[in-house]
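Attaching the record inline, Q. Sequence:
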Amino acid sequence: MLGLDNSGKTTALKQLAGEDVSHITPTQGFNIKSVQQAGFKLNVWDIGGQKHIRPYWKNYYQNTDAIIYMVDSADRRRTDEAADELGQLMEEEDLAGVPVLVFANKQDLLGAMTGAEIMEALELTSFKDRWVHVEACSAKTGEGLESGMSKLMAAKNGAQ
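Structure, as predicted:
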């Protein structure tokens, strides 16, 4: 699970694991959680998104089965930065063909970009070599998380 800092990665992961999300602090390094999803046990790596941590993301790419990329839909100022980081991910050889679920997070906030707006802003239609899906969600409330994960699992199963 990747994305810029403050995009909601840890909150989403805790929500999926059924844990309390009332006190979340920025991730320094990474968290690993096992979550049950659509009959599968997933080991999800939540890797910090601060600028100084991003160069280390590549250490986690090998043997990755899927990418969950979290975007703060309410922070329009950082959309270009989120798009740049995702674009770099898509060019990584170790991630070639890996399915990508983009969570358009923070839909509970006024002025949040829609899933369609996120798809356009991140230029997701340009990635033809893999399954890519945008799911509008709120990690805080949990809305959209299960739906997105189910679609990702279905896509992953269809590819095997």
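The beta strands are 2-3, 30-37, 40-47, 67-72, 100-105, 132-136. The two ends are 21 Å apart (CA to CA).

More tomorrow.
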